[in-house]
Amino acid sequence: MYDASHNFLNVHEWAYGATEIVHILSLTAAIGFIALVDLRLLGVAVGQASAARLARATAVGSLIGLVVAITTGFMVFATDPVRYFNHPTMRLKLVTLLVAIIFNYSVHARVARGDFPLPIRRGVASISLLLWVTIVFSGIFYSFT
Amino acid sequence: MLESLGRSIQDLRVLTAIRESALVYPTLLSIHLACIATFGGLILVTNLRLLDWFLTDIPASDLIRALRPWKQGGLAIMLTAGLLLGGSKAAEYLTNPYFQVKLALLASVGVHGMLFRRSVYRRPEGPSPKAARLAGALSLILWIGVVSMGRWIAYYDRPSPAEQVSVDTVK
């Protein structure tokens, strides 16, 4: 049986804080890279760069950011798994995260790399930004509700 | 001194209301963090370009110009939310060493922007390559420090009066 009281992050407070910092920095990298593509899809001119060019340039960065953010997220999750799992706001965060990842690597990737009319590009960029911001909000609201 | 200054700040009616609201405080904190994630992420994008690690086929000046209004708008929202959050607990925050370091780092970010204004950010012919790398590296370090100290504010163990007494007795 897993005993959270022996979890490294629960035993060492500095490690808990350090994990949270890495979580925030990595999610900033991931969401920032995706937001750059979204701004381009919304119609912001970034030099001569197309959305496809920006999507290619940011793909590795946003993937690394997501992997690190999710890993550190689950490290914090493991410090109190039952409470996290049963909390409605955390469930909203996890479901939104799943939807955002699927959306990012299916619809978002196709629209960023393809030739679609502006309303579709704008709609996809808005959904993408809305999903990621919802994840941030539910991550904060979790500890207040 | 700082503590009494903090008390008079946080006793402002609007800041008291924020502190006592169950909904406004987490909403402001979420806005603060969402701005860090999106617009702070754009700062990271700019710095990586200045370091020549990324998008090297696009002139750095084009990227800086395209992102400037978004970063400025995002920074304004982030600072407003942050000031309201910190202000609502000013007595606690102003005496927190990690918050003090965060403020010092933010001031350094301002100085950084002015120092590199002519050689990088507003240079008509584009950033000079050497200054660009230095500006990107410094900005990256300063902002990582700001975010880290922001989180670390919550980890400050304020010495309680009782502890101070016992330390004095031991001495």
Walk me through the structure.
Chain A has one domain (4-142). Chain A has 6 helices and no strands. Chain A has helices at residues 8-11, 13-42, 51-77, 81-86, 88-113, 118-142. In chain A, helix 2 runs antiparallel to helix 3, helix 2 (13-42) runs antiparallel to helix 6 and helix 5 packs antiparallel against helix 6 (118-142). Chain B has one domain. In chain B, 80% of the residues lie in helices and 0% in strands. In chain B, helix 2 crosses helix 4 (60-88) and helix 3 (24-50) packs antiparallel against helix 4. Classes of the chains: A mainly alpha (145), B mainly alpha (171). Chain A binds chain B through residues 13-14, 17, 20-21, 24-25, 27-36, 39, 44-49, 53-54, 57-58, 61, 129, 132-133, 136-137, 139-141, 143-145, and chain B through 22, 25-26, 29-30, 33-34, 36-45, 48, 54-55, 58-59, 62-63, 66-67, 70, 144, 147-148, 151-152, 154-155.
Low-confidence stretches of chain B: none
State the major sheet of chain A: none
Task: Please report the total strand number of chain A as a whole number.
Answer: 0
Whole-Å distance between the termini of chain B?
27 Å
How big is the Rg of chain A? 17 Å
What's the average pLDDT of chain A?
95
Instruction: Give the number of helices of chain B.
Output: 9
Note the overall shape of chain A. Answer: elongated
Query: Quick one: biggest sheet of chain B?
Result: none
Poorly predicted regions of chain A: none
List the helices and strands of chain A in order: HHHHHH
Please give the alpha-carbon distance between the first and last residues of chain A.
28 Å
The DSSP helix count of chain A reads 6
**Structural class assignment of chain B:** mainly alpha
Structural category of chain A is mainly alpha
Name the helicity range of chain A.
over 70%
Percent in strands of chain B: under 5%
Fraction of residues in helix of chain B: over 70%
The total count of strands of chain B amounts to 0
* CA gyration radius of chain B, whole angstroms: 20 Å
Mean pLDDT of chain B, to the nearest integer, reads: 92
